[in-house]
Amino acid sequence: MFSDKKAFQESFKKRLEQSYSISFQDSTRAQQFVTLSNMVREHISSEWIETNERYRKGNKQVYYLSIEFLLGRLLGQNLINLGLYETLETWLADLNIPLDELEEIEPDAALGNGGLGRLAACFLDSLASLNLPGHGCGIRYKHGLFEQKMVDGFQMELPENWLRYGYVWEVRKSDLSVDVPFWGSVDVIERKEGTKFRHVDAEYVRAVPHDMPVVGYGGETINTLRLWSAEMSTMTPMHDVLKYKRETEAISEFLYPDDSNDEGKILRLKQQYFLVSASIRSILRRFLSNGGELKELHKHVAIHINDTHPVLAIPELMRLLLDEYQLSWDEAWHITERTFAYTNHTTLSEALERWPIRIFKPLLPRIFMIVEEINERFCKRLWEEYPGEWGRIEKMAIVANGEVRMAHLAIAGSHSINGVAWLHTEILKNREMNDFYQFQPEKFNNKTNGITHRRWLLKANPELTSLLTETIGDGFQKDAAELSKLAPYADDSAFLQKLWDVKTKRKEILAKRIFEQNGVKVDPSSIFDVQVKRLHAYKRQLLNVLHILALYNKVKADSSYQMAPRTFIFGAKASPGYFYAKRIIKLIHSVADLVNNDPATKGLITVVFMENYRVSLAEDIIPAADISEQISTASKEASGTGNMKFMMNGAITMGTLDGANVEILEQTGPDNIFIFGLKAEEVMSYDKEGGYRSMDYYHHDPLIRRTLDQLVDGTLDDKGLFGVIYDSLLGENDQYFVLKDFESYRKTQEEAGRIYAEDQARWRKMMVNNISGSGIFSSDRTIKEYAKEIWNI
Ligand SMILES: *Cc1c(COP(=O)(O)O)cnc(C)c1O
User: Fold this and answer.
1) Is the distance from the beta carbon of residue 640 to the nearest atom of ligand 1 less than 6 Å?
2) Which residues carry this modification: N6-(pyridoxal phosphate)lysine (predicted)?
């Protein structure tokens, strides 16, 4: 289909006309996009079939269970991975169709909130690109993450609708549907050979799989992402049909708009069980139909649990092995424990999932029984290890105080537990999960996160990709470790100039987009200082915006104050129910209004908030950044992956020693990164002692005092909007150490500005050292570690 230009063009036109009954001349970009994408999907179908055939012949398979997959757009990435991008770009150009305009038509598949969901998407890309047998299992939410619309500086949430025109990449497989039971009760049948259990009077929900191809680089391997959609089942008698329909379809209607703070909602628990029950049964079905022996399951199947949301997969596999396949408890547990591995993503205690028994037990009666049994046996083992230590055992129990603790269930039922960056894993082992680490140290390991360089470099930044290719060859495109070949060019002034030109080009492209979207003119020769990520108190967008306000005050107070012109760029969605985060978004807008419209700072400080942050917007912003803001309160960010994307695109990190920033520093060395603020140890010991006295910083630092006063004195608004922020810093003792880190941040920012303005050679060298050191953060490296050390594939 794509081997001959004439044939392609003919077939493309013909299909367009036949699908839409429209002449080629009159066809729209949307119709062209759909037609091209369908051709690509058909093109890969034989490789897809072949990949599945290959897997049937006994390879160990990995299933990555995740409640989120933040995929973004697929057309461009698939073409790059198939090696077809440039060819089709020219062939389409001949027909007066710009390929990038077709790409713009595709809606982002935003089935995730942020880092956790994006990690899952990067992992799928790496698995396929490394020709590894790894598949995703998730939910096909009808509406992905909400669309953010800014109205007068306030965030409005609109329902997202990625399926509006049908989705070109999925294949619906109704014949592989599975019925998932909820409610009902458990029948206990005493038999000679033992007690049997049966889940009766359940209400069923039909899980219908929609398969998406995951195209590996080079096009040899096409793995599968299976997303389940909830529909009415024919197994449930129809009493109140409308109610049943509504409740059923609700399960795959919306993605929960928060990845760190689940409210105790039955629907969320239903989503979790729906995902795992459908996935585990489809995994078993496939395994058995290929002639697998159940008792050998763990030798042929590895199931990975991305955070605690899919943890019910553990009791669900137990249920199937016990109730449907009649294995003994010990046999079933032996298999289960060796099949599962679990990744922890956070140490924030408010994000640790716990389900009240009063919700859990009626919804999932048989699963609850099994969880209780797992708990009992687990506690018995603890009792043998720590006789008499009631306190310790109660702390570690899976069911206690009227709740099911999902992280404890994950630890008990998995053979591997990993953190996502060195520091995070250390904190898990030595603090948050120390009891479990003492009990079973061999289970714990670290797998530092990564990003797929195919999206975040090859796709997002073709200009830089070309420059790198002409400089060090194209080996890095396949193997990101080859980026280290760039290191010697840190002193090559001709190369440095070209690198600078690429960065400038990308800043011009972004400046154009900012003007179109925000109506603000930004200067591409100013420093592009960027913070884009979910809005959360611990990520400290507040520190950034207070620094901008302070900088503004400094310039106003002292007209001789020298600074390199700066453009501060923000992008962030706040969870709809997270009032404080939304107020910070408003604050960013108010500061932007003040600063952008004051002649005293015009051209010197510009603040831009780009609405609706998402993968495709990130692909435009990140290549244009000079400074990457990674300023979370130390110890709070498990890894961060945004930090890696920026580094790979030649931005310099302004960061705390938190998450993977620690390892970024290790790669760049201290001269190529800006580190400031409290260390994790310091934060944790303050936390232990109940914080620090933030009021002292207000009293002793006139700049802080002046800046904080402006939150409440009418400078920014006359309705008292920001009192809540003022109070969080002074009244509530500044839980995230914003004021404590403020002066250190301000000074480090000043230093960065000085180097950019006065020592451009040094800055360019820093850029090179970041790019050349970023190869280790390719998710290919991460996935190779998972494959070897956890999955054994
Ligand atoms: C990478 C990415 C994230 C994660 O960013 P962090 O800075 O690590 O929090 C969130 N959202 C999108 C759209 C991303 O691409």
Assistant:
1) yes
2) 645
Answer yes or no: 361 catalytic: no
The arithmetic mean of pLDDT across residues 153-173, rounded, is: 96
Where does 114-250 have alpha helices with state H? 115-129, 241-249
How much is the CA Rg of the chain, to the nearest whole Å? 27
Judgement on whether residues 470 and 402 belong to the same structural domain of the protein: no
Query: Is 730 in contact with 627 (CB distance < 8 Å)?
Result: no
Q: 281, 298, 533, 589: which is the annotated catalytic residue?
A: 533
- Looking at the DSSP bridge assignments, the partners of residue 347 are none
- With a 6 A CB cut-off, is 465 part of the ligand 1 pocket? no
Determine which one of 534, 573, 582, 740 is catalytic.
534
Residue to substitute in 641, 664, 778 for testing ligand 1 pocket (most ligand atoms within 8 angstroms of CB): 641
Q: What is the number of domains present in the chain?
A: 2
Candidate list 641, 656, 668, 707, residue with the active-site label: 641
- State whether the beta carbon of 114 lies less than 6 angstroms from ligand 1: yes
- The pLDDT assigned to 260 comes to 58
641 and 533: one domain? yes
Q: What is the pLDDT of residues 70-109, one digit of tens each?
A: 999 999 999 999 999 999 999 999 999 999 999 999 999 9
Name the domain boundary from 414, 430, 465. Answer: 414
Total Cβ atoms within 10 A of residue 134: 25
- Contact indicator for 649, 772 with CB cutoff of 8 Å: no
For residue 539, indicate whether it is catalytic.
Answer: yes
CA gap 129, 478 in Å, rounded: 9
Residue 6 domain flag: no
DSSP label at residue 467: H
Please tell me which residue in 73, 142, 345, 740 is annotated as part of the active site. 345
Residues 531 and 657 in one domain: yes
User: Both tokens of residue 302?
Assistant: 């590895």
Counting beta carbons within 10 angstroms of the beta carbon of residue 772, is it exposed (0 to 12), middle (13 to 18) or buried (19 or more)?
A: buried
What global pTM score does this model have?
0.98
571 CB near ligand 1 (under 6 Å): no
In order of 161, 663, 681, the CA distances from 676 in angstroms are 41, 15, 14
Compute the distance from residue 648 Cα to the ligand 1 centre, in Å: 14
Give me the mean pLDDT over the 168-185 stretch. Answer: 97
CB 282 within 8 A of CB 289: no
Which domain range does residue 209 map to?
A: 58-73+108-414
Assign residue 518 the CATH number of its domain. Answer: 3.40.50.2000
Lowest mean pLDDT among 28-42, 234-248, 423-437, 604-618: 234-248
Residues 364, 486 share a domain: no
- Residue 347 pLDDT: 83
Asked whether residue 42 is domain-assigned, the answer is: no
